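From the methods appendix. Each design record in this collection lists the tokenized structure first, followed by the designed amino acid sequence. Records were kept in a plain field format so they could be parsed without special tools. The example shown here is representative of the layout used throughout.

RECORD:
FOLD TOKENS (454 positions):
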């Protein structure tokens, strides 16, 4: 298997530290709001990748954190006049609800910053001892100049970055590139006792500390959105490798951003679409199709056109799966013939190439394309078994919704027949037109009205 590694800027052969177990850490959301479609991309894509690793025979230890102490959480808590913990708890619960409806499996572990304060303090003390950190007032900073390979992950040159950077007025660090490990608390902020005074952790330190505690000093894959490469992941890497003097992460995977009319979808820009809204309008299957039909590293645009396309693409597969089931039922076995073996090999080939899900889906589109019209029942069975097997990592629901759709169409047809009986042809034509726009063809046959998907 090959994975594109941000660190080397190349696709590399994937060799886990332990031949059977893959350890993976994915940066999770800051819990101050419901997640939006942009947050859903790493969650869906890396969960699908994790399941593909399982499909390929690995056990996967998958950690995804919640940042539950942060300026934005404090701000929302102050507006509502509640403890920041209330906000954190609410949106952790919100995340689990949305993730579950999107078909994302829970991680092996979902650590929260506020449960790791002791480990974070120990981490910082250790960095201080090794002269990678210094205290200014109640703040503690990481000394970037003490870590020579700073910038390697994001392929940036520290002196170039310095020339463009400046130190904010409220910061008293020695170098504009230095970043905060521990922040002295201001009035009205959550705080913990520490050797440097009351305060709270900086953002980057939590992922280093949690991953060290849960996955050890070195692990296989660290993933997240490519907006995290700098400074978040660069800083995580610097402080962890400074502490352990070991290579921390072997493969860095980053997904591309979702844009809306050429701007990144983000809460600060205000062009967000929450997962909850998207689920209501398009449904889980369309969202998963939308996210998986582009390579995870490519940027994608979010628009109602793209979502409708995804919905149509999904129905192309779902409809054939349904048709096959009608023809051959559910309880059958297939023999693994050359055709099945070839298809499985093809699927593994494209997904082993840096998890190329658009190619994987095109294999499925090819398989479902003419399988019904050939009338070959054995081939239909093979296709169904293959798609069901691959659905372990694609995560579609081929079952639900269908009955509702059928009921809806039957109801519309009944209304149309009633209209025709009344000789209200304007009404009956309107219903026909509406159904046709939905891709449904109506046939008035001597034995009654039939319908089918166009
Ligand atoms: Zn992180």
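DESIGN:
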């Amino acid at each position: 298997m090959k994975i594109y590694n941000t660190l080397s800027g190349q696709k590399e052969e994937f060799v886990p530290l332990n031949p059977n177990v893959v350890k993976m850490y994915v940066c999770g959301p800051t819990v101050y709001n419901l997640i939006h479609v942009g947050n859903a991309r790493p969650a869906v894509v890396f969960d699908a990748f994790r399941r593909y690793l399982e499909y390929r025979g690995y056990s996967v230890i998958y950690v995804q954190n919640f940042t539950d102490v942060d300026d934005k959480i404090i701000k929302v808590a102050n507006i509502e006049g509640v403890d920041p913990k209330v906000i954190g708890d609410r949106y952790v619960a919100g995340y689990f609800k949305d993730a579950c409806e999107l078909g994302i499996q829970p991680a092996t572990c979902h650590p929260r910053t506020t449960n790791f304060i002791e480990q974070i303090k120990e981490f910082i003390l250790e960095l201080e001892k090794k002269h990678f950190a210094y205290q200014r007032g109640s703040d503690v900073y990481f000394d970037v100049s003490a870590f020579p390979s700073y910038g390697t992950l994001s392929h940036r040159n520290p002196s170039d970055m310095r020339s463009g950077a400046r130190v904010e007025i409220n910061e008293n660090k020695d170098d504009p590139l230095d970043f905060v490990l521990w922040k002295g608390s201001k009035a009205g902020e959550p705080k913990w006792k520490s050797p440097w005074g009351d305060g709270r952790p900086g953002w980057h330190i939590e992922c280093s500390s949690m991953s060290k505690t849960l996955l050890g000093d070195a692990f296989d894959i660290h993933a997240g959105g490519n907006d995290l490469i700098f400074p978040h992941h660069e800083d995580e890497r610097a402080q962890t490798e400074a502490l352990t003097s070991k290579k921390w992460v072997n493969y860095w995977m980053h997904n591309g951003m979702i844009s809306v009319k050429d701007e990144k979808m983000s809460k600060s820009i205000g062009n967000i679409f929450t997962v909850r809204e998207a689920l209501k309008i398009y449904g889980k299957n369309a969202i998963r199709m939308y996210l998986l039909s582009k390579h995870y590293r490519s940027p994608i645009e979010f628009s109602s056109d793209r979502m409708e396309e995804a919905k149509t693409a999904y129905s192309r597969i779902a409809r054939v799966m349904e048709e096959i089931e009608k023809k051959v039922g559910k309880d059958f076995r297939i023999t693994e013939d050359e055709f099945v073996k070839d298809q499985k090999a093809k699927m593994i080939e494209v997904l082993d190439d840096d998890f190329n899900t658009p190619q994987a889906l095109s294999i499925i589109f090819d398989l479902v394309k003419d399988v019904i019209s050939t009338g070959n029942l054995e081939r239909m069975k093979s296709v169904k078994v293959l798609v069901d097997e691959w659905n372990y990592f694609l995560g579609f629901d081929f079952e639900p919704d269908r009955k509702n759709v059928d009921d809806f169409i039957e109801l519309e047809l009944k209304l149309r027949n009633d209209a025709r009986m009344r000789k209200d042809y304007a009404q009956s034509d309107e219903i026909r037109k509406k159904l046709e726009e939905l891709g449904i063809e109506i046939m008035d046959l001597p034995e009654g009205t039939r319908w089918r998907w166009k």
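APPENDIX NOTE: The mean pLDDT is 93.
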